[in-house]
Amino acid sequence: MAVRGELEYGTSAPLREALEENTGPGRVVVDCSGLRFCDSTGLNLLLKARSVMQGDGGRLDLAGLRAPVARMFEVTGARTVFRVYEDTAAALADTPSA
Description:
By secondary structure, the chain is α/β, with parallel strands linked by helices. It has four helices and four strands. It has helices spanning 13-21, 40-55, 69-76, 88-93; strands spanning 2-7, 27-38, 59-63, 84-85. It has a four-stranded parallel beta sheet. Helix 1 links the parallel strand 1 (2-7) and strand 2.
């Protein structure tokens, strides 16, 4: 799934719904290459989705983080929580174990 534009309080509902529909033991890769901005609401949404998926035996990975979004993930420490790939192709080529 892909995220574009800004991920904040007023724009997070579609991603939240998509992530809720895809929980479970599988793997979801979120393409963030089109994401220009992410606030604490967006970060918390991704962290919560990751936690739920992990509890269900699944995983949530990110691909294509760009500045300043990548910087926010670094500063908050969230970068160490997610498996982050350079781009979606690299994420899909990797088959990590849960």
